[in-house]
Known about the structure:
The structure is a homodimer.
Chain A: E1 6-10, H1 19-31, E2 36-41, H2 43-51, E3 60-64, H3 75-81, H4 86-95, E4 101-104, H5 108-119, E5 129-135, E6 140-144, H6 154-172, E7 178-182, H7 193-204, E8 210-215, H8 217-222, E9 227-229, H9 232-257, H10 261-269, H11 271-281, E10 289-292, E11 297-300, H12 307-321, H13 325-338
Parallel strand pairs in A: 1-2, 1-4, 2-3, 4-11, 6-9, 7-8, 7-9
Antiparallel strand pairs in A: 5-6, 5-10, 10-11
Amino acid sequence: MARGTTLSIDAMGGDHAPGVVVDGLALLVADRPDTRLILFGDEAALTPLVAAHPGLSGKCEIVHCEHKITSDMKPSQALRRGKGSSMWNALEAVKDGRAGAAVSAGNTGALMAISMLVLRKMDGVHRPAMTAVWPTLKGRSIVLDVGANVEADAAQLVTFAIMGEAYARATLGKERPTIGLLNIGSEEMKGHDEVREAHEMLRTLDLDLDYRGFVEGDDISMGSVDVIVTDGFTGNVALKAGEGVARMLATRVREALTRNLATKAGAVLAASGLAALREQMNPSNANGGVLLGLGGVSVKSHGGTDARGFATACRLAADLATSHYPEEVAANLARIQQRGTATG
Amino acid sequence: MARGTTLSIDAMGGDHAPGVVVDGLALLVADRPDTRLILFGDEAALTPLVAAHPGLSGKCEIVHCEHKITSDMKPSQALRRGKGSSMWNALEAVKDGRAGAAVSAGNTGALMAISMLVLRKMDGVHRPAMTAVWPTLKGRSIVLDVGANVEADAAQLVTFAIMGEAYARATLGKERPTIGLLNIGSEEMKGHDEVREAHEMLRTLDLDLDYRGFVEGDDISMGSVDVIVTDGFTGNVALKAGEGVARMLATRVREALTRNLATKAGAVLAASGLAALREQMNPSNANGGVLLGLGGVSVKSHGGTDARGFATACRLAADLATSHYPEEVAANLARIQQRGTATG
């Protein structure tokens, strides 16, 4: 059994755990029958849930954990009190090599903090970065950092580009993902020093990357590039601003189609198209954020996700665990170090 | 004739100038008959366009200008070569008190640069800020800065809050606009130093403002507050990211409704609702960015706007020119200075 096909699961994290978690795993093994699972959590609760899915039979090991990280715990509390929790133990399994990747729908701040402590940083990476999958006109793009750090200097932005590119190849199925650096405005007024300096580094450092230069906020949804690189503050605001617009427009479309009898009848006739649209825009298809730059794979599922979304996050974890992502990142980081330009 | 009801118009700025500009002015005077207009531009081109709108008769003065700022000019070029252009002269008219506000659909960077040079900064304001009107679930909110500066320290963010609040009162018709500071993440990990320091200042400085604390990116479209304060880099990215999502979703809805015969028939039946939606989301209803913090009102219309959008930008200019915005901003800035906390 290949190491990469074993996932360690925090079965107690998320708004609807452990039920949705186990249901998601059943969906996962239905189309990835080679996957093996180690579930960390309350054995008494998990055993009957697993037993209810014949597809999980023989593929799940349950490891009992006495407690879990709650959603209201601060990262510092989670670090102090988290040892032995389902989240912590799932990450330990990745560190020990018992699993290729960990997946949790639990507390984001706690997961980032415990992941960094347990898995440590990859050599040459000073700041890990959180990814998001963004639906675009052309498919999907990766945005990073979306909130692991509030700031990023030029060298960190370059590292984000390197990690994001290898990650996009592993999970989007693109052989040669394109990269853009998020910026604003006209040629003359472009960006802060960090962004301009990172642009120069990406253009001149002879990295093995298809760097396409600056992109602006509206390029993300247009799918102009596969990987959008930015600092965690800007990336988080962009992601949430976009989610807000999508939510507002969904409400407005609903209102428009229930306006009167004619529009309601129209909505019934258009149901097949609207269902396809809902399916296209279903967040469950894009669930899973990864903290890149660690010595192991840790995937964050949305806390409120359904079973399908949890399965999506697990597929992403498995893709990354079986990819050449760590070697590719290491090779590009070595190129920077050879040029003597890496900074802290 | 009240000063505030005279607008100076850069009739040559924008993708479809001067035709769309003059058509927009005709719409404006149709519902604001007290408005007087000074048009700066090519007299030979403007005279017949104005004559074609009987409603403009007796309300327009045309001032001939030999040249105009082109869309590809850099701000530095515009400053060197812009004197005597339609844009420059429109701003001079505000400075001289011949008009209460200037409106241009021309080159944004040039308009910002020339506005700052000609109108100068308001006392106590170190960095002007560009506003945007953002459609929300509750109506409209104001976001600033959306790109006049790439960075902002805490004192500048506080100034943006003061200017944005008075601006929202003048243009949204809210007696007591609420204010939020854009930030990310959980309590413990919140934001950079600048944002945290601005939060403390807004909470403790005893300003005449209804400050509601931190908001996140998705709060903008929810209409959680009337004024969203952020630095120009983050604000510009958020605005464009949101525009990108809206454009992508519009494309997807169109695809969904033209998917097959049934959906096409449904779209016909739902036409009234969809038309109302299009109207609600029409960018012409939210056109007009203002560079706040100057010694006079300078409004930027979108370059590609239609006549309705240009009229919207002019209404906004007139509302601001006739408001108590400058006095209100001055009063709050004086409160900061009394506390001795204003910084550069």
